[in-house]
Amino acid sequence: MNNYGLRRVLLASFLGLAAGVSFAGGRYADPPPNLVEVLNASKAALEAAKQSNKDLCLENAKKARKLAIDSYKEKSTMPMQMSSSRLKSVIGSLEAGQVAETVTPLEEVVKEVGDEVEYYKKEGKL
What we know:
The protein has five helices and no strands. By secondary structure, it is mainly alpha-helical.
């Protein structure tokens, strides 16, 4: 390989690495749709779970999951995908009558989505 070819390969490799690093954050410039609504419904489900109110918790968990799914369909983001998965397991636990087991996963959803809301607020997008 001549000097010119080697330079081209090195430049292409460097640009490839730089491009990969620039997308490492995994966030869109604008927040995903329904982000605040998913947070609010998840918080309401968490509060209901802490009070052992199965029906209210189930209602809010279903609402939060539907919003997360709708958001993910419009703009696929990891927080919405993970929230949807956790909320699905929460709904299953609630339907089995296991209200106490839903507190930890709901806290995780609230933390994760809350972190996203805070990020976009700091960026001036919310």
